[in-house]
Design brief:
about 40% strand, about 190 residues, six-stranded antiparallel β-sheet, Tumour Suppressor Smad4, Signal recognition particle alu RNA binding heterodimer, srp9/1, mainly beta
């Protein structure tokens, strides 16, 4: 059985029993409040053992790549990518937030583990403070998947490119770019 795992570690989408008509994916599968994700963003059509053809159905773009670090192919409405399978990634938004970045997992793939080798901390005036084990696992999972950012809670987002923790307000622009710094250590 194939499935998609979100890079924030919070969402799994089963692709079991996907028939010839395909499996529609959209806002309800990703995040009902995600304004950049269409109600029907893309459709996955099964092609072979745990592989799919992805067809974009949205006014935004759908992205696919063969794995973290590979170049993205951005599909416009009606465009397709074939032979997408285990290890490939699907993005519902060019911003590549962990909530909209998914990795294909096949039936032979191990169960997802939230937890990694790194210990993620954030800076306080009094020094560095480690995140909770759950947030540490989510940060490590998103970082490893190549996400650009991760929503930590309703008001804070970790931005990996700048390694800043930024205070956000309901998926709008950041209130401040001068948030506490993040630190990943092995």
């Amino acid at each position: 059985m194939a499935w998609l795992a979100s890079s924030d570690g919070l969402n799994r989408i089963s692709l079991a029993n996907t028939g010839a008509d395909g499996r529609e994916l959209g806002r309800a599968d990703v995040n009902p409040a995600a304004a950049t994700v269409s109600r029907t963003h893309c459709v996955l059509f099964p092609t072979a053992d745990d592989t799919f053809t992805v067809e974009s159905r949205c006014t935004n773009v759908s992205g696919v790549r063969s794995g973290p670090g590979a170049d993205w192919t951005w599909l416009r409405r009606g465009e397709r990518a074939s032979d997408v399978g285990t290890g490939w990634q699907l993005a519902f938004d060019r911003a590549l937030t962990a909530e909209t970045l998914f990795t294909f997992q096949g039936s032979s793939a191990p169960s997802p583990t939230l937890g990694g080798q790194g210990v993620w901390s954030w800076a306080l005036e009094s020094g560095w403070s480690p995140y909770s084990p759950e947030l540490n696992s989510r940060l490590e999972t998103a970082w490893t998947a190549g996400a650009a950012s991760l929503l930590l809670d309703p008001e804070r987002r970790a931005v990996f490119e700048t390694m800043l923790q930024v205070k956000w307000l309901q998926h709008r622009a950041p209130l401040s770019q001068n948030g506490p710094r993040l630190r990943a250590s092995a």
